[in-house]
Every structure is written in C-alpha cells, then in structure tokens.
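Lecture notes, continued. The same structure-token format from the folding unit now serves as the input rather than the output. Read the line below as a description of shape only.
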C-alpha cells in the first residue's frame, strides 16, 4: 500500500521497547457503546473502523478491558485477527466498571492477574505486546500492583509494561520495579498538567501516550486552534493532533473514533506541518 494511502505513517515512528510503531496511533475506546458502556449500536461498522484504522497506517492500537467493559478488546480481535505482523496492540487493566458511569480502581495483584488472562483470551493472544496499569489504586501500594505485572511479564504473558494516570513520583516508583516503555496520561492543547511527566519521559526515552488528545472536544472549540486551522486549511482536530506530534519527539497520540470519516480526518493530521508561528500561537509550554 502506498504512503499516500497510509497517511498516519507520515508521523514517523517511535519505539515501544524493542517494537517500532508509527507515531500516530489509534484509540479503540469509542468502538464500544455510548458512555463506553456495552455493545455498539452497529458492531459491523465498528469492525470496519478498526480495520480501516490499520489501513490508514495506525500500527499501534490502544484499548483496555474496561472499555465496554470487554467490548473493545473483542472487537479488535474480530476485526483484525490474525493480526498483521506490524500491528502492536496495547491494552490496560486496573479499572473496573460496576456500572455505566463508574470507573473504579482495582490494583490488587489477584485482580490484575485475572485481568491479564482475560485480555489474552479476548484479544486471542499468547502474549500482550504492551500492558499498561490503568490507574493507581489508593488502597494498594503502587509497587505491589506493578510487581504483580512484572511477575506476569517474567512469565511470558506480557512483552512490555507501561503505566497510566501517574504523577512523576509514581513513574519513578514504577521504573524501580520494572522497565517502563510508555506512560499514558491526559494531555492536549487545553490540558497540560502532565508536563512534568512528559519531561521525565523525554529524559528517559519513554513513549508518552496522551489520552483525550483533542480534549474531549475542548481543543476543537479553542479560538487559537480555530485560527490556525483556518490559516492552514485544516480542521481543528487535525491541528490539535499535529500540535501533539510537534510538541515532543516521544509523543504517541491515539485519537479515537467510531466514525470512518473522522478516522480518515484524524489520520491525515500526520501530514499537517505546523510552522513556528503556528506553534507560538498554540503554545509549547
């Protein structure tokens, strides 16, 4: 397939441990039902979105057992198994969904062991390429949770470990327990609170995966984003994604959608070049 047909590849590549992926990934949260709960209204349409995401050059797909729960992982397998050689799937565990609007932390080692086994089964894998601890559990020592995942890594169930929703201190704790290849925190033009964690990732050469890369729509409404988009003949979503790619060499954005049209729009952001004036207007701190 030509490079023009795979626009996400224009973002270049990044390392996840010994794995190389294109630096614009795809987030598979929104292929589940409304509120990331239950089945989507049209499973076949979501399978098409996932297949199209890979065709567009997204060689990294991010998911979690809590998306649905369990729906996103199953749909990925239905759409893409047997997996193309260059595709890397990252999933997460450590959040549970007792109801539509609840996301409860569970970092107990016994839960994480069950979660990993469940993800292996749903994704039809013998080993998960990237497994990220979804969120610290205030009831469980952080090192204890990471230690359980490190044991599963040594057992061959996990290839690489990552963490999510952490502060800089928690990242340091995690790195003392096991090698960490990725951090997934909220970060976008309108929400930059994890700037210190991003800086730590840059220093250590760890991939930084920003969730809500377009700020759940907030970035699309920002006046500065709209101005730059109009000047460049792009959409606000493309500017928001292109800003992330330009912001840091370790950035691995994962814009997600359940729409084929939005998937194609987002992938094209990798081809958008922001100039010095654009970056100054959007901000780099």
């Amino acid at each position: 397939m030509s490079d023009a047909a795979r626009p996400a590849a224009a973002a270049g590549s990044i390392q996840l441990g010994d794995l190389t992926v294109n630096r614009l990934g795809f987030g598979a949260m929104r292929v589940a039902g409304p509120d990331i709960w239950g089945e989507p209204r049209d499973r076949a349409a979501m399978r098409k979105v996932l297949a199209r995401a890979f065709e567009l050059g997204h060689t990294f797909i991010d998911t979690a057992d809590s998306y649905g729960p369990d729906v996103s992982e199953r749909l990925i397998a239905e759409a893409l198994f047997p997996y193309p050689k260059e595709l890397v799937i990252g999933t997460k565990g450590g959040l549970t969904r007792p109801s539509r609007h609840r996301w409860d932390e569970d970092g107990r080692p016994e839960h994480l062991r069950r979660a990993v086994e469940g993800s292996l089964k749903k994704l039809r894998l013998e080993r998960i390429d990237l497994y990220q601890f979804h969120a610290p559990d205030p009831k469980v020592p952080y090192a204890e949770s990471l230690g359980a995942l490190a044991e599963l890594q040594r057992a061959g169930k996990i290839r690489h470990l990552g963490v999510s929703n952490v502060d800089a201190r928690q990242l340091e704790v995690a790195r003392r327990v096991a090698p960490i290849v990725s951090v997934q925190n909220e970060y976008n033009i309108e929400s930059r609170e994890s700037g210190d964690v991003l800086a730590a990732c840059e220093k250590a050469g760890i991939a930084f995966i920003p969730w809500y890369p377009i700020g759940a729509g907030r970035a699309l409404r920002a006046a500065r984003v709209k101005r730059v988009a109009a000047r460049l003949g792009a959409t606000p979503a493309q500017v928001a994604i292109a800003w992330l790619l330009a912001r840091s060499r370790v950035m691995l954005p994962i814009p997600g959608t359940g729409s084929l049209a939005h998937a194609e729009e987002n992938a094209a952001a990798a081809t958008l070049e922001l100039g010095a004036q654009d970056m100054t207007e959007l901000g780099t701190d």
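Point for the exam: DSSP finds eleven helices and eleven strands in the chain.
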